[in-house]
């Protein structure tokens, strides 16, 4: 490639967990998130206690894997969108700060699983901010959820056997449902496939 040629555009992220780019169609969205049972809430809160002790490091691991495996997601982060090296990402104070924010938001959800109105309010704020202010495509929440579940299962195998992973998958589905509801509420418009 000569210096004057521009590099090819990045390819769109692969389909993950059945989500395609720009997909938030009201008709495709279930009427409500599947509720968690009391036992499932207890499992989530118990396992989260082990994870949250190391919340910043876990959050950094999640974000690094997310950005390495789905580099198109970095377009929303001007402060570290040009970072390619995972070690450089790990040293980034800005990435660490965002990792803490992600983990603290999830902590608020987990701590309030017995208060569905609080969970709805928190996730509506997250969804609206990402839709209106940051203009992040909602599919990235599903991708990030999947990456988070992978990291938790790998880093905490003693606390995340298959049965626990299934409960956490249900929680992440509910998180995605609430966030996409906020996107729909603010009139999110799909962007063209050339944006990613």
TrEMBL record:
One annotated GO molecular function: iron ion binding
Protein name, per record: superoxide dismutase
Known role: Probable multifunctional globin with a hexacoordinated heme iron required for the catalysis of various reactions depending on redox condition of the cell as well as oxygen availability. Has a nitric oxide dioxygenase (NOD) activity and is most probably involved in cell-mediated and oxygen-dependent nitric oxide consumption. Under normoxic conditions functions as a nitric oxide dioxygenase (NOD) but under hypoxic conditions the globin may switch its function to that of a nitrite (NO2) reductase (NiR), generating nitric oxide.
EC class name: oxidoreductase
Catalyzed chemical reaction(s): Fe(II)-heme b-[protein] + nitric oxide + O2 = Fe(III)-heme b-[protein] + nitrate; Fe(III)-heme b-[protein] + nitric oxide + H2O = Fe(II)-heme b-[protein] + nitrite + 2 H(+); 2 superoxide + 2 H(+) = H2O2 + O2; H2O2 + AH2 = A + 2 H2O
Disordered: region residues: 1-38
Organism ancestry: Eukaryota, Metazoa, Chordata, Craniata, Vertebrata
Entry GO terms, CC: cytoplasm; nucleus
């Amino acid at each position: 490639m000569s210096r004057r040629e521009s590099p090819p555009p990045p390819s769109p992220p692969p389909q993950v967990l059945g989500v395609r780019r720009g997909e938030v169609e009201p008709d495709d969205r279930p009427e409500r998130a599947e509720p968690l049972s009391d036992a499932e809430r207890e499992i989530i809160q118990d396992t989260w206690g082990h994870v949250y002790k190391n919340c910043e490091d876990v959050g950094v691991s999640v974000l690094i894997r997310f950005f390495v495996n789905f580099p198109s997601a970095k377009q929303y982060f001007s402060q570290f969108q040009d970072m390619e090296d995972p070690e450089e990402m790990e040293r980034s104070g800005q990435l660490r700060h965002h990792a803490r924010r992600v983990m603290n938001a999830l902590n608020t959800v987990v701590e309030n699983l017995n208060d569905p109105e609080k969970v709805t309010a928190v996730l509506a704020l997250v969804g609206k901010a990402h839709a209106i202010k940051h203009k992040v495509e909602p599919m990235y929440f599903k991708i990030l959820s999947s990456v988070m579940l992978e990291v938790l299962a790998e880093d905490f195998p003693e606390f995340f056997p298959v049965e626990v992973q299934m409960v956490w998958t249900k929680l992440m589905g509910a998180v995605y449902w609430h966030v996409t509801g906020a996107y729909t509420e603010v009139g999110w418009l799909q962007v063209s496939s050339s944006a990613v």
